[in-house]
Prior knowledge:
The protein is an all-alpha fold.
Amino acid sequence: MTKPLQLNTLLRYKNIRDIYLQHKTEDIPDTRILKRYIYPKYPISRTTLNTILSTPIDKLLAELSSCECPQNTSL
């Protein structure tokens, strides 16, 4: 079983996915989007990009936000 993704990881995945979707058209390959737009800001590989694109980011963020409980700060 894999460990769940943390909030900051999911937010970074969301940013990368948004950049990808902003520039993706039928005639532009994924590798070009990665090289020109994503890699300068987030140095990731093609495999990592494919992992990010296949991750259900919105669903995991919703689950994570519904699970967060206020912590007791009293000692």
